């Protein structure tokens, strides 16, 4: 039986993609906070902005991972979206000290992150 070994350079590149995704997320969230402060945006607009940031960032991470992978691009994109979601959920649970506030939109955010990451991988 032949074992498949994931190339370590692909895993390292995936980790770099995640780092870039979270740096981009931090930058975009800071920009959104600045817009909130400057223009007094409503809560609905801020919520839409956060969702758009999730979609754009996971799409770009999936696009980069798919570009590098060469084959099974959609799976690499899906993996980027899922890993992004898992890290995001873990950070939210640590900050909120529990699952109460996180669980209300958990499935929606998972589908958005996974779907946009997979779409990015497919379009690469």
Short description:
With 124 residues, this protein is mostly helical.
Written overview of the protein:
With 124 residues, the chain is mainly α. α1 (8-39) packs across α3, α2 (43-69) packs antiparallel against α3 (73-96) and α3 packs antiparallel against α4 (106-123). The radius of gyration is 16 Å and the shape is globular. The model has no long low-confidence stretch (mean pLDDT 89). It has helices at 8-39, 43-69, 73-96, 106-123.
List descriptors.
mainly alpha; 81% helix; globular; 124 residues; 4 helices; single chain
Give the H and E element order.
HHHH
Approximate helicity band: over 70%
The whole-number mean of residue pLDDT values reads 89
Q: Beta fraction of the residues?
A: under 5%
The general outline is globular
Low-confidence stretches: none
Give the tally of structural domains. 1
Distance separating the two termini: 32 Å
The counted number of beta strands is 0
Structural class: mainly alpha
Largest sheet, strands/sense/barrel: none
The number of distinct helices, counting runs of at least 4 residues, comes to 4
Q: For this entry, what is the oligomeric state of its chains?
A: single chain
Radius of gyration (CA) equals: 16 Å
């Amino acid at each position: 039986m032949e074992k498949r070994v994931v190339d370590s350079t692909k895993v390292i590149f995936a980790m770099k993609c995640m780092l870039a995704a979270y740096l981009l997320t931090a930058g975009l969230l800071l920009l959104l906070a600045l817009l909130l402060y400057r223009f007094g945006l409503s809560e609905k607009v801020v919520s839409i902005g956060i969702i758009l940031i999730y979609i754009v960032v996971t799409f770009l991470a999936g696009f980069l991972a798919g570009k590098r992978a060469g084959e099974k691009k959609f799976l690499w994109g899906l993996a980027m979206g899922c890993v992004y979601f898992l890290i995001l959920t873990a950070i939210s649970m640590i900050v909120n000290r529990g699952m109460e506030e996180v669980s209300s939109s958990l499935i929606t955010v998972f589908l958005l992150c996974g779907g946009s990451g997979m779409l990015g991988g497919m379009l690469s």
